[in-house]
Amino acid sequence: MKQEYTIPRNPVDGLEVFLRVAERRSFRAAAEDLGMSPSAVSQIIRTLETRVGVALLTRTTRSVGLTEAGQRFLDRARPAFDDLLEAFEAARSLGERPSGLLRLNVPRAAIPYLIEPVLQGFSAAYPEVEVEICGEDELIDLVERGFDAGIRMGEHLEADMVCLRLTPPFRMAVAGSPNYIQQYGRPLHPSDLSAHRCIRTRNPTSGSIHRWPFEVGGQPIEIAVSGSLIVNDLDLARAAALRDVGLAYLATPLVAEAVAAGRLETVLDDYLPWSPGAYLYYPSRAQMLPKLRAFVDFIKEHRPPDKFLEKPQEG
């Protein structure tokens, strides 16, 4: 038994029914196509004509035709309705398969280590997904800025984020070139940094200069260092340290290769805190589109191998 149609109050109510009647020139045929009763179709058309304020169809016992107003309405309504259907289909397609634009917000220094190794493989596996990478060091609101996911250190993430670990925990590092350390000496305590040239970084949001965190006697402290160079990019800080400009405060993964090659040396290791590691984070599993699900699954399987020792177990 066919259900009677209940008419909601909506500007496009009845449009699909009118278009089908105009196409088929029959209330009964339109009703069959739409899975409705002829009386429901007739009611919808009458309501639509009342809302428009003019008759759109002419009816006889044998046929259905368009009035002049109906023909004008059809000429405008048909392409508009087709556009609306295309809009629904475009949105639906993003929920059916990995496609569309995937926007990632990643610290600039982490891109070569965490994104570049998986980017080519992901693009080859999902050619319908466009990947946009924004290099940015400050923690942002992903939803407000229109990003699908981001990468940040675990200590900076909000509790309501869904997080996927990308690296093991690692220690922070103060690093300088062998030439710099030979010329200026090796600091043995964080207080010794007052006599050193430190490469400082500025917070682009607040404009303040970052203080360097340490742990002394089991207590966290922050030191305002001085130096002749200020940057807003950790890669620039590392490059400056490699060129003997001064000491830089960086994550161990960013200096490990240069340290292994003898191009940088770390100092004050016993006073430096540990980071929980880097995480991919995003707002909600329930809102995850296939493009993000595909990226999360891909990076789980193909994330770069761990090159750094995990934090030793206490006790």
Structure write-up:
This protein has 315 residues and is α/β, with parallel strands linked by helices. The chain folds into 3 domains: 15-91, Winged helix-like DNA-binding domain superfamily/Winged helix DNA-binding domain (Arc Repressor Mutant, subunit A), CATH 1.10.10; 100-168 and 277-302, D-Maltodextrin-Binding Protein, domain 2 (3-Layer(aba) Sandwich); 170-275, D-Maltodextrin-Binding Protein, domain 2, CATH 3.40.190. 38% of the residues lie in helices and 22% in strands. The chain contains 10 helices and 15 strands. Strands 7, 8, 11, 12, 13 and 14 form a 6-stranded mixed beta sheet that branches. β9 (212-216) and β10 (219-223) form a beta hairpin. The longest helix is centred in the N-terminal third of the chain and has 29 residues, at 68-96. The chain starts with 14 loop residues before the first helix and ends in a 13-residue tail after the last helix. The relative contact order is 0.14. The model is unreliable at 1-9 and 307-315 (pLDDT under 50).
